[in-house]
Structure formats: C-alpha cells, structure tokens
Amino acid sequence: MIRLACFFLLVLGFAACAPKKVVLEQYKLPESYHWAESPSNSKQDSGLLVWVKEWRSDSLISKSIRNVLQKNLSLLQTDQELKHAEAEILLIKGARLPQMDLLTGAAIRRFGRYTMDGAGNATTDMIPGKAVPEHLPDYRVAFNAFWNPDLSRELSKQNQAAINRLLGQKALLDFFRTQWTAETIRVYSQLQAAKKAQKLLEQSLTTQDRLLEITRLQLETGRGNAVAEIQLQEQKLDILELQKVISAEEKMFRFKIQQISAELPDNVAVNFNETNASGVLISLPSPQWVVSKRNDLRAAEQFFMASEKEVEAARRAFWPKLTLMSSIGYQAYDTRLLLTTPASVAYTLLADLGVPLLNRSALKARHKSAIASMENAFLKYRQYLNDAMHEVNNAWINFELAAQQLNIARERIQLLKKAERMALTLFEGGKSDYLALLLIREQQIAAGLREVEAEKQYNLSRIDLWLACGAPNFDSF
Q: Within 13 Å of residue 90, how many CA atoms lie on the same side as its CB?
C-alpha cells in the first residue's frame, strides 16, 4: 500500500512539472467616441433599424437579398466549413466515450520443440487423453472495450475549443452574410441611381426637342438664329452620349447582382424611391454596442477562446492519463469447442496510469505552438477591434458629409428650375437670346446628374454605416 502511494506521489510530481497557465493583458474599450456622444442602450440602433425597415419594404431588394443568401457560392463554401467544425465536435465527443469492437479471428501456430512453449506443449494434454497439437489452431470471438476517462480533462478542453471554433465559424458565416447583404443593397442603390439618371436625361431630351422646335419656328418667322439651332443640336448630342454611358453602367450593375447570386444574366427590376436625407435622426452607437453586434468581432473572439482552450489542452497533456482496456469472449483450438461455457470463456481486464517522463519535446513543442496561436488570435482580435472603431468613425463622417451634399444639391436644383422657367418665358417671348437658355440648360443637366450622384453616395454611406455598426437586424430580410 505504501509503495502504491509512493507511485501515485511520483506521478503527481511529474504532472506538477507541466507549464504554467498563460494570462494575456486585457483590452479595454473606450466608453464612447471622442467626438460624439453615445446614446442610451435603448436607442442605439433606432435609426439603423429604420433604414433596415426601409430596405426591407422594397420587395425587389428583399427578393434579391434572399436570392443572394441562398445561392451565393462564397456563402455556400463557408457553410461547408461550418459542417467541418460540427464534425470536429462529433469526433472529440466520440473520443471521450468508451469504445467497443466485435472481433473474430483465426490463427495457426507451431512452436519450436526446444523452446519453453514447445517443450511444455509436448508434455501437456489439451483435453484429457489428447495432447496439444503440433500445429495449434486458435479461434476467437470476443468483444474488446477501450476507454480513456480523461482524468486530466485534456479532451474536455479540446471539446470546448471545438465548440468555440464552431461558434466562431457561425459568427463568421453571419459576418459574410451581412457583407453580401450590404453589397446587394449597395449595387441595387447604384442601379437605382443609374435608372434615375436615365429618367432625368430622357426628360432633358424632351425639353431639348421642345427648344429646337421653338428655334425652328423663330427661324421661319425671321426672329431666330441658325447658330442657336446648331448649338442646341450639339447639346442634344451630349445628352445622348451621356445616355449611352449611363446605360452601359446600368447593365454592369444588373450583371453584378446576378454575379453575386450565381445566376445567369437576365433582367433585374428596379423600384424608384425618393431618398429623404433628413427624415431619420441617427445617433452614433457606443463602442461596446458595436462590438456586441459585429459578427467579425464575435468570430475573432470565439477563435481566440478556442485557442485558449487549445493551450489548456496542451498543458493537460503533461498530466497523468488513465487507460482502461477489457476483452471478453470465447477462445479455443477447435471450432467444436469454441462455444463451450465456461471452459472456452476468455477475458482480459487492464488499467494503465501513465505520465510522460523523458523526452517530452513533442509535448513542449505542442504547448509552445498553442501559445503562439493563442497570442496570434489575441492580436488579430485587437486588430479587428481597432479597425472596427475606425470604420465606424469614417462611416459616420462620410454619412454626415453625404447628407449635407445631397441637401445642397437639391437646393441647387430648385434654384435652377426657377431660373429655367424664367429664361424659357423670356426666350419664347423674344426678350432674351438663346445663349442664356443654353447656359441654364447645361447647368440644370449637370446639377441633375450631381443630385443623382449625391443621392447615390448618400445611400452608399448609409449602407457603410449600417455595416460598420454590425448590420443590426440583417436577418429580417
């Protein structure tokens, strides 16, 4: 009994030589952004959810997003990686449970006469009156069982690491889903802007034809100028050229939506919605709220937690391991005697308690590698946090700028429309020459396209800000 106790003390002494647990410095988030006051928790996503509701109300956007989330090839590949993570958990779960195999076998042996076995068999009866055969058959049917109780909890830590990797993979899949959701809305907004520009140019062509008709009537009555007609025709060609360019861009945006949803080229419908740049009051969420919503940060956090568990599992590999093995079945030299009970019953029961003593280089290498992976995962998480904070800052600045530019562009349009009506009245009454009208027309067309571009940039900035804040409620599409 004393010897057994000494043996266990010796084993525990070697287990105490395992490396110490590694603790990394904690990273503290700022309470708020230095240039913006964070709102209360109950209102942090109010404005963002209004945008989501607006996008979801567009049936064509919702249909495109659902199509992309179901058919996008990158998302399907990530989903397969998720299944690999699920299979890893199943593998470790099986390793923690007892294993049992059914074995059947047959063998034949001959021992040398001048060996311990051969000499013993020569003078021994297998059964009364029958000597052991020189060519000895051996038939066996048995159940073999094996179990590692995991006293060191190494497998338990590996299982926890696999669960964290699975959760990280799920968060990563959600992150990619938000990225493709935002990309779909972004491309759709660009397509919508192209359609609005086309509509604006079509209205400009109608107005241009009307001006040409007025100019021709003035020429017939001797009050017009042939140069005015030529310049109006040249201005019409400029509008037609712009139409061709925007039409090509529109086709590219249509094909882009089909490309990200892995579909063959076809027609993509577009709804026209007027964007209100001042209708929704947006307040910047706090950094803690952003971290809780961004799936890329959640994935990085889960991968870091998995690396922590791997380090702990590598430490536990230095601890003692208990192995239990057993076997029970029938064994005989003759098949006619194989199922004779209890004479042919054979069993084995074995328990091993082992601990690594010498040349633990492989275990040390595994532990150092796990620590390096954990520190790398921690640094990646820190980098993702830093990038996320800057993304929100930049997205907010761009959003504010785009909203201001859109409002200015719309004020400019209203002024130019008023100037055009006045110039057209003067031109029709012969109180003004065509040069003033040409200048107003050029300014109005340019201002209209600038408004379309400003609205597009405003919509894109909303998407970028929503995405930077973690794309809340993206799964409602």
A: 6
